[in-house]
Structures are given as structure tokens and as C-alpha cells.
Write a structure and sequence with these properties.
By secondary structure, the protein is α+β, with helices and mostly antiparallel strands. It has 16 helices and 6 strands.
Length: 377
């Protein structure tokens, strides 16, 4: 083991302990695990993260290698305010703290990248109508989206046009999505989403988390009641009662009919059945029978897709980078300037929706993409 006292001396540009912790959590490492990789005691890693000791040059090089980030990353000032997502994740209740920390660290880095890009290109103004009533809120949001009655064709794009930053996440275990108001004054609405999910599940997750942003901006802890409110918002947003009732009552609701409606409304068969029960199109016994049939066919975990749904991906982060840096920016140089790695930025951009091929060099179109970004003079 290395002589530990020789590894820790103050540099002219000190290492920021918060950045070390952020990078460690990004790799889903405990302090003990990182200490093993570095060949030091866990207490030394704790000292670095608290800022009570500084690593020498050799130690910093080792740290950067193991955490897969450039040395300059660790010398930056504190990251912007990015609290743990409101009500954490719309996912399994048993999600581990380490996974939550990893997803938060990843999202915080992408969020910070977006804020730094906003120094060169204006962010889309936030136009979220806040409310404490789920149904009223959903109707107000649809009005703000200027969407027609009926199915919402692309909820991710519509949400981004309201000024919500949707951050793509890798396939973290047991995570679907989370929402948070972030930034120095909690002024930026953010949704983090794992894209490697069925499209109907992704759409419901986005709607659910959008509900948290609209209904629970000033809430700091979650309850089951708030989750119910977010679901009611999502159901009304994606399946508005006034317009879906006709489809739910036009024919007998069996599995074949639910599968057909799934292709129209972009939500799961289970969500449609639940909505039909809530609107009293079917009773509790009929709902239970439909659920039992789906269970017998194994559709509770993987539903059929008679009409494959379009995969929706966030566009705003990539569009912001294109406007701020130019469409032909060298990614290696961008990574260096932002104290990140090319691999990290590439992974983020690859999870985003690319520019439409038929409009790659033309003016943005208001209905099909994210368009309000303007380069600052």
C-alpha cells in the first residue's frame, strides 16, 4: 500500500470533494470500493470528499483514471443545485440508494452541461401552468401544449416545448423516470428518463413525472397520496375523459379491443382498462376479469403491439448543443472545454433524437421539434 501521508498535499488548484463524490456515485462505487481501487484506506476517501485532505498529483491521476473523468473535472466549483428527484422514481419501491445516487449524479452532470450551454443559447421559456388539482392541471397543460383533442402524438416533444429539460438516462436498474425542480433557485423543471423501456411505459412515466412538476413543485417528500395525484394527472393528460369515452364505449372492451386502442392512444392495455373502470365504462368485476386474462397470457409484464408505437426520445439537450456549439463541433474539444469525456457526451447524445434528416440545415419547425433555442450574440 502506498505511503498515505505522502499522497495528500494541497495543490495550487484544490480538488473539490463534492466533485469526487459526484464522480464516485456516477460509477456506483462506495467509498470503500473506491479506496480499494486507489490502494488507500476508506477514511482517506472520506477526507478527500469532505475537503479535509488533498491528493497529490499521482493520486489525482489515479483517481481520474478509476473514475473515468479528466483531472480538470475534480478542480471545478460545486455543481449546481440538483436535489434528489421529487418522490424519487416511478419504479419499484425497493430501488437501492446507490442506484438513486448514480442516476442523480448522471442527471446532474447533464443538467450542468445544459446550463453551461445556455450561456451561448437561450433555453426554452418555462410555461408550466401550476395547480393543485390533477384534472384541472392536466387540462391546463394540454391547453398550454396547444394539442388537439384526442391522443397526444409525442408527449416528450410537447413537454420539452413547455420548457422542461428531459434528460436521457442509461438503463439503470429498476428506474423509469424522476422529476425535480433544479438550479440555484429551483427554477428549472427537469425530468430524467430511462429510454430503454416500452414506448407506452415511457409515455406514462413522462406524463406521471410531469404531473409531479405541475402539482408538487414545493413538496420535499413523497407520499402515496401524491403518487395517486400524479397518476390522475397522467391519465387525464394522455386519456382525457371527454374524448376517450367514445372509444371506450364504441365496442365491447375485450383484449383485442384494448390492444387496438393501445395503438391509437399510445398507452398500455392495462392503463386503458384502468381508465375504463375509473370512468365507469366497466365495473370492478369486469376489470378484474380483463386483468386475469392478461396475466394468463403473460401480458402484465410484456404486452402485444398490434400497431407498434413510435419510440420517443428527448431532443432538447442535443438541439441546445447544436445551436450553442454548431452542428459540426468537435466532440473531443467540447469534452475538454467542459471537463467531461468524449465517451460521456457521446453516450448522452446517442440517447437523444437526432435532427430530422429533411430539415438538418433548414429552419426549425414549430410543430415537430424543439424550436425555441436561439444562439446568444
Amino acid at each position: 500500500m502506498l505511503m498515505q501521508e505522502e499522497l495528500f498535499k494541497v495543490h495550487h488548484t484544490p480538488v473539490n470533494g463534492q466533485r469526487v463524490r459526484q464522480a464516485r456515485e456516477l460509477r456506483a462505487l462506495t467509498q470503500a470500493a473506491l479506496a480499494d481501487l486507489l490502494g488507500v484506506d476508506q477514511t482517506m476517501v472520506a477526507h478527500i470528499e469532505r475537503g479535509t485532505k488533498q491528493p497529490r498529483t499521482e493520486m489525482l491521476e489515479h483517481l481520474a483514471t478509476e473514475l473515468q473523468l479528466p483531472e480538470d473535472f475534480f478542480r471545478q466549483r460545486n455543481p449546481p443545485e440538483f436535489p434528489t428527484g421529487s418522490l424519487l422514481f416511478r419504479s419499484k419501491s425497493g430501488i437501492g440508494k446507490r442506484v438513486v445516487a448514480q442516476a442523480q449524479a448522471h442527471s446532474a452532470l447533464v443538467f450542468e452541461f445544459a446550463l453551461r450551454l445556455s450561456e451561448h443559447a437561450s433555453l426554452i421559456p418555462v410555461r408550466l401552468p401550476l395547480s393543485d388539482d390533477p384534472i384541472v392541471a392536466a387540462r391546463n397543460v394540454r391547453k398550454a401544449m396547444a394539442t388537439a383533442d384526442g391522443p397526444l402524438p409525442n408527449i416528450i416533444r410537447a413537454t420539452e416545448r413547455l420548457g422542461v429539460l428531459i434528460l436521457p438516462l442509461p438503463d439503470f436498474k429498476d428506474c423509469d423516470a424522476f422529476a425535480v425542480w433544479a438550479g440555484p433557485d429551483r427554477q428549472y423543471p427537469v425530468i430524467g428518463m430511462v429510454g430503454q423501456r416500452a414506448p407506452d411505459r415511457t409515455r406514462m412515466s413522462i406524463a406521471h413525472e410531469l404531473g409531479h412538476l405541475v402539482l408538487h413543485r414545493y413538496v420535499t417528500s413523497g407520499t402515496q397520496e401524491l403518487e395517486v395525484h400524479a397518476y390522475r394527472f397522467a391519465a387525464e393528460l394522455l386519456m382525457p375523459a371527454d374524448t376517450i369515452m367514445g372509444d371506450l364505449t364504441a365496442e365491447k372492451l375485450n383484449l383485442f379491443r384494448l390492444a387496438a386502442l393501445k395503438g391509437i392512444w399510445g398507452v398500455s392495455m392495462q392503463s386503458l382498462a384502468r381508465r375504463a373502470r375509473e370512468l365507469e365504462v366497466i365495473n370492478e368485476r369486469q376489470y378484474g376479469y380483463l386483468m386475469k386474462q392478461m396475466s394468463m397470457k403473460g401480458w402484465r409484464t410484456e404486452e402485444p403491439n398490434l400497431t407498434p408505437l413510435r419510440i420517443e426520445r428527448p431532443r432538447a439537450i442535443l438541439k441546445l448543443a447544436e445551436v450553442a456549439l454548431g452542428p459540426t463541433a468537435n466532440l473531443q474539444h467540447v469534452a475538454r472545454d467542459f471537463a467531461l469525456t468524449k465517451a460521456f457526451l457521446s453516450s448522452v447524445f446517442e440517447m437523444c433524437e437526432p435532427a430530422p434528416k429533411n430539415n438538418a440545415h433548414g429552419p426549425p419547425r414549430s410543430r415537430s421539434g424543439v424550436l425555441a433555442f436561439k444562439r446568444k450574440a
